[in-house]
Design goal:
- The chain has a six-stranded mixed sheet with strand order 2-3-1-4-5-6, with helices on both faces.
- Among the domains are: about 190 residues, Rossmann fold, CATH 3.40.50; about 80 residues, Roll (Ubiquitin-like (UB roll)), CATH 3.10.20.30.
- It has twelve helices and 13 strands.
- The chain is flat and about 75 Å long.
- With about 400 residues, the protein is α/β, with parallel strands linked by helices.
């Protein structure tokens, strides 16, 4: 399962975002370090379900809205100097090692200072909160590299020394693969002998490696309170930025759970269906105004952007009956898998089960009713029958 981590300074709205996206019970309060131990839950990426191309819905979606599980991690807030151990920095950064991407939750309203303490709206520049999270992560990783560099130099004396292999061993704990290390080493110039590397080379390695293995998306939170110029400046950044109101999303999710409104995560509007008070109506109206301006609350949009744009994954649906799009029990489109773009039918087979992958024979495009090649690149919404000796 893909893993997304919520980063940011204290009191930016990470725990509210997490609660809204998972509907799990966590502490949400207006003071720094509300989150001490990391919260792990399941949220979802939203996509179009292929059953919309059938006469009836599959029963595994919400009227054609398919929600595919992803892990969501909410960790302690980050403060400047975290890589040196300030706040809960080392604990925070250690928790990020297994995340595939980072959603940096930024207080777009500028209503909290760099330490996460409340200030007047607009008193703090949210642009500073964009850069410092990347800086702390980069410097933390550089520290790991520096701590291990003596070992790298010792191994370089061996006649069969391989720099990529050695750095992969050092960075495995950070989630780096040999392919990641190879891609990063192509991105900058460095001496072939590790003994000739200096701090600039190691810093370049750290920054490129973080960008390669932990890409970031900015969730510009509290847009319903933010001065217009703050959001404009955030949206002008050369980054992936999603305007967000985690408070608004949480209000909608709870109202839907109580039967007061009809709303699915990622919808651009909602319908009031229950008896609500004037105060509730006013609160929902404020959320609706923000949704109208930004096309929704931004919580689901942030998750979608992280999965489908930042990580460039596609959703693929394995079936056993290619004509009815069902599994062995007759359930229509029972499973959905998120795979990196460029994945092949054999990759899908291994994702379903290692035995299916090892016994892979061929695959059939259920939409077209034809066999596809082993190197065929799967696309978003593909419905695929895997033929395997393990079935």
């Amino acid at each position: 399962m893909l893993s997304l981590a919520l980063a940011g300074k204290p009191n930016a709205g990470k725990s509210t975002f997490y609660t809204a996206a998972t509907m799990a019970d966590v502490d949400v309060a207006n003071y720094p370090f509300t989150t001490i131990d990391a919260n792990r839950g399941v949220s979802h990426a939203r996509t179009r379900c292929p059953c919309l191309d059938l006469e009836e819905r599959c029963g595994n979606c919400e009227d054609g809205k398919r929600y595919v599980p992803v892990e969501l991690l909410d960790v302690a807030g980050l403060v400047p100097g975290a890589h040196e151990g300030r706040g809960l920095g080392n604990q925070f950064l250690d928790e990020l090692t297994n995340a595939d991407a980072i959603v940096n939750v930024v207080d777009a309203a500028g209503a909290t200072d760099e330490e996460g303490q409340p200030v007047e709206v607009g008193a703090h520049d949210p642009i500073e909160d964009v850069d410092f999270v990347e800086e702390e992560m980069d410097m933390w990783l550089m520290g790991i590299i520096e701590d291990n560099w003596e070992s790298v130099e010792r191994r370089s004396r061996s006649p069969d020394f391989d720099l990529e292999e050695t750095l992969t061993d050092v960075l495995t704990g950070f989630g780096a693969t040999e392919a990641d290390v190879s891609a990063v080493l192509r991105a900058f110039e460095y001496p072939p002998d590790p003994k000739n590397w200096d701090d600039e080379h190691r810093e370049a390695l750290a920054r490129e490696m973080r960008a390669q293995t932990k890409p970031l998306l900015i969730a510009a939170n509290k847009v319903d309170e933010a001065p217009a110029e703050n959001l404009d400046r955030l949206l002008e950044l050369d980054r992936m930025v999603e305007p967000t109101t985690a408070d608004g999303e949480l209000a909608l999710r709870r109202a839907a759970e109580a039967g007061l409104i009809e709303y699915d995560p990622g919808d651009e509007d909602f319908t009031i269906t229950g008896d609500i008070s004037d105060q509730q109506r006013q609160g929902l109206q404020r959320v609706r105004e923000a949704m109208a301006e930004y096309g929704g609350t931004g919580v689901q949009a942030s998750l979608n952007a992280a999965v489908y744009d930042l990580l460039d994954h596609v959703t693929v649906y394995p079936v056993q009956d290619q004509s009815k799009w069902t599994d062995g029990q007759g359930e229509v489109l029972p499973d959905a898998f998120l795979l990196p773009r460029g994945s092949t039918p054999k990759d899908l087979a291994y994702a379903v089960h290692s035995d299916i992958g090892e016994g892979y024979l061929h695959a059939v495009d259920a939409r077209e009713g034809r066999e596809i090649s082993d190197d065929h690149e799967l696309e978003e919404g593909d419905v695929i029958r895997i033929v395997s000796t393990a079935q």
